[in-house]
Every structure is written in structure tokens, then in C-alpha cells.
Specification:
heterodimer; A: alpha/beta; 14 helices; 40% helix; B: alpha+beta; Glutaredoxin; 5-stranded mixed beta sheet; two-stranded antiparallel sheet; elongated
Amino acid sequence: MGIRVDKIRSDFPILKRGFTYFDSSCMTLRPLQVINAINSYYEEFPACAGRSMHRLGNKVTEEVARSRDIIRKFIGAKKKDEIIFTRNTTEAINLVANSFKFEKGDKVLITDKEHNSNLLPWQLLAEKGIIKLKVLSSKPDNTFNLESFEREVKDVRMVSIVHTSNLDGVTNPVKDIIKIAHKNGALVMLDAAQSVPHKVLNVKKLDVDFLAFSGHKMLGPSGIGVLYGKKELLEDLNPFMVGGETVKESTYTTRVWEDLPERFEAGLQNYAGIIGLAEAAKYLDKVGRKNIEKHEVKLTKKLTKGLEELGDVKIIGPEAEQRGGITSFNIGNHDSHQVALLLDNSSAIMVRSGAHCVHSWFNKHNMDGSVRVSLYLYNTKKEVERFINSLKEVKKLLG
Amino acid sequence: MICIIALIIFGVLGIFSARHRIIAKEALDCVLRRITLRKCETGLDKRLKAQITGRLMKGYPRTGRQVYKHFELISWFFTILLVLSIIFSAQGLYFFAKYGNCNGLNSDKFCIFDPLNSLGGDDFSSEVCIDPSLVSEKELSFAGSIEGHPSIGSKDAAVTVIEFGCFSCPNTAIVEPVVRNILEEFTDKILFVYVDFPLKHHDYAYEASLAAECIWNNQPELYWDYHINIFENQATLSQEVFLTIASEVGADIESLNKCLANEESKSHVDEDFQSGIDSNVYGTPTFFVNEESLVGAVSYKELKKLIEDQLKE
């Protein structure tokens, strides 16, 4: 069963303003249900969780626990303790990079299409001499090179790769990657910021070791993210950020670490964000991520056809079916920022431009950036048509 | 180039709003980078270009395309225009502060800083009725006496304004309303004295002065009515007109005729003229405001300013 976009759109108050929002890979819009859930915390129980014994404190504790469970189910994790709330994907990856007990000379493998969030933490560790960083090149069509991976993974301690690329929308074959990695004794960390919001994902079935994603890319609030980790692996991590709630008790010289997941959730948490994130997960489950994915691919195909018909448009990555809801392109040699600005100012169409935090890939390919259209469940065929027509005008203007 | 325009415009707006201050800072950064032949990093130039052309594209796609294509050229044009307009505005402000008219001395053109002409800038003109034979390098300095001349105001006033005027001089006529306004504003503060200075080459100048002198001597209460009427009918002055005006203001025509024929009356007019020559007056109107002098059909603002300065002293 498909999705009823008109019904979905009515849940997003901001869409009444009449613009076209094609930048969901950066930040999604929020439905009223999520906004109400966030507000409910501030209006009804704006207190501390896990500390205060009073009725408001208990209510927050219950809501956070309930939210954690919703997120657990959302990604198919086994235990609630395996869900750690972070600020975002970046913090989750940093947590693993800085807490995992690497031995000197351990190798970490990433791809050549990583977001800075999954490049820089490892780059710094490599500079400190803690790890050796290996970068796996993609195939010429920008898809994952599994054959090359099989060769490169042999002496690797950890594989940290993007699940769905924010650059071109390509989803890596993580099931195979994880199998091969595990066969070679490597752990796998997935940057799932662009996959969890758009596809059904089950960490148990995937057998992934660590997985990170953000709330703001899945209709949830900003400033909330999740790190999933297998319990035994999380328990073995060094403490990362420490402070309030990360210990059971302490003396001036010693402390007893708290159990999971609190051990990694230092200080007062973003309770409104956690509750809003759970509501977003519920919303996505209700619509069905399989339906969302289908909807996105359908729109991407239409978009790709329109772009190809325009001529002089270079799309980054493989064919439409493999790019989910993301399409990165350039018009001739024109500046991507200029194209984005013109689309916004002439037609109120919002797209992303630039290097999309994947500077390394653009530098490798001697490119300044690209225009990126990222679609989501609230986008329509009409919007895609409008975009193509507007782009036609922009193209004429650019000459 | 667009960053220079943005810097100036947002710099001014930034005085009042923090939001515009941020854009002004971006523009400044852009300008500094461009001066040193580097690329603008803030992207302000791109944003402005896209905003302007993007909005044009909505209603006028063809215009939008042309503007985009020639954006740098158009930016240069507007930058030059803006710089020129700033220079002219500054000059206008300077003139306005100094002369009361933004177009400079001797101009009677429209002034944007005083659109309603509340300061009387439009009657500003330094046109003078000159007797070339009297022009000299000598400094103007009142050398006569204020006694016996038509006057308005208290003799104890701190400021004495003496006007040497000619009834046939168009510039004296032009300045007449200015004098009226000044008298209205500075009643009780100044003593205004009118001294006849009938220029020889002006028809009926001497006759008009003589008639006015006679009325002043015979019926001083009618003098200013007569004086104003003469200026109002300056274009049609004749012996007949003098008498008609005199009659209209209620003068005794018989005694006026007698006075006109009287040599003593003539000698008064001659004395007046001589006092002008002694004061180095070479044309009309010439004003003495205490020790200061002004020549020509001065503006209300200029005369007022001189009086105020003297009052302060």
C-alpha cells in the first residue's frame, strides 16, 4: 500500500507556507505529533529523569524509558541498554572512536565517501598514532566495491562506514559487508544517519556492532541522536564523557561506573528531544518505512528523468533506483550555491549546495560541490515537476 | 562591486538594526578580500546576485536573465552612482548648513533638505542693481546717520538693520518681502532703517525717492503703505503712478505736490544718496546689520542668521 502524501502533508504545519523543501537529508521538517510531544515535556513534566523522586521526576523517567524502548524496537535491537542517547550521529561516532579500546597499530577502514563525522574522529586517532586509517575507494559509478573490500578488510580492527551516503544516496551492501568483516575479525560501525529514517533496518538481523543516527533527519527534534551498540561491546568501552548519572557513587579518588546505558549519558539529558524522537519513530512506523522508501524512489526516478531531459546535467552516482531519495548533480560547470540560491529566490525551492560535509570526496574528484535534492515522505510529484521547470529557467539564466 | 553597495547601504541600516549590522560586516569582509584580490568567502555577493535576479525571474524572466548576465557591469554602474550621490549629498548638506540652500550660494533651485522651503531658500539671490561708477575696492562701512530716515523699531534695539534701497531696482523689490518677514519675526528686537539710494540709471528712481521722502516728512504714518505700494507697482512707475498711489494710501496730494517742488526735499534725497556713497555703497539693496554688511537680494535665512549672530553678541 502506498502512502497518502496529502494526508501526511497536513501533519506538517510549515508546509502551509507554500514552499518546496528538498533538503531533508540535512534536516527534516517536523509533524505536529512530534512538536506536540516535545511541548508535552515542557508543559506537563519538565523535570529530571533518574534522579528526582517526585511525581514529575518519575514521569520523565517513565517517558524516557518508554522512548528508549520505542527506539529499540524501531531499529530491532535486543535490549534497551543497547540504546544510548547522544546529541547526534557525530557524537555517537566520536563516542565509539574515543572509547573503543584500540591497540596501537589497529586498523580502521572507512570509505572514500564518508561524511566528516565519520572521517575526522578516525583521522585524529590516526594522527595520534593510535590507529592506522585505511580509505576504501568506491567503484567508478560511486557504488561500494565489495571485491576490493574483501581484500582490504583482512587485518582491520574496525570497519566504520556510511550506510546510505548523504552525497549521492547510494546504500552500501551492509549485510555482506558485515558478514565479510566479521569473518575477518573486524567490528562494524554504521553511520546510519541517512538510512534509519528511510529504510527498515534491523540491527539484530544485520548483526551490526555499532550504529549511529540522528533525530533531526527522521522528523525528530534537533540535538538528539542514538548510538546502538551490542551490549557486550558497549560494556567494554572506556568512559567517554563523564559526570552526572555516569556513576553509581564516587569518592574523591574513586568511582563506581553506572550500568548501561546511563554510563554513557553524562549530565542532564535532552528529555524533550528523546520524547520527540520516540514520537518521530512512531510516526515513521505508522506510515511505514518500506512505503516511504518506495515513494522516494518513485520521485527520484521522475526527478532523474527530468534532469536528464534538461541536458548538460551531471548526476553523481548510479542510476535512480540505487540512489533512494537523494540526487546530487551539477549543471555544466556552474557554481552549485548559485543554482541553489536562484531556485530559492525565484521559486521558493530549497535544496542543499556545496560539499555536503563530504569535502574529501569532492577534493579527490577536483569538484567544488554539487546541488543536492533530498526527498522525503512529504514531497510530491508536483513538487518534482515544479522543480524541473524552475531549474529549466535557472539553467537558461546561467546560460 | 555589489559588496561595496551592500557595505554602504547595510552600514547605514546597521546603525539602527543588529540584523543589518551582520550583513554590513559580511560586506566589509567581502570588500576587504576583493581589494586584496581574494575571493569573497562569506558568499554575500552570490546571495545578493541570486536574490536580485531570482526575484526578477518570477515576473520578468528575460530581464532576470539580462541582469544576471551583466550583473558585474550593473553593479559597477550602481556603485559609481551611489558614490556620486553620496558626494553630492555631502556637498548639499554642507551648503545647506552654510547657506541655507543645498545648491550653494546664489542658487534658488529646489533643496531636498528643505523641501517646503521653510527657510526661504527660494528667494535666495545675490543679484544687485549696480552703479558701475560707484564700484570700488573700498570696504562697506555705514558712515551716515540713522536719524531722519524712515524706520521701524526701537532706537534702543541691540541690532540696527539699515537698508540702502532704490525704488526702481528690481532686486530691492525682490528683497522687500524678506524684509517684511524679518520685521515680523524680530519686532522689538531690531531697529530697521530705510535709506534712499536712487540709482542714476534707473528711471523714476529719484522721483520715487523724493515722493517717499515727502510723504515721510508730511504724513509719516502713511509712509510704509506708500513704500510697499511703490515696490508692488515698480514695473509701471511714472509721475502719474506716484500720485495715484499717494492718493490711494490717503496722502494729501496738494501738500505732496508742494513738497515735490521744494528744493529742501531734494536735498534730503541727495543727502541720503551721499551717505550711501560715503558708506561705499555701490548698488542696491545693501544692508548694514550693525557693523556687518550684505549686498544684493539676500535670503531670509541669511539675513536672519546675521541678525541672530548680532543679537547673540
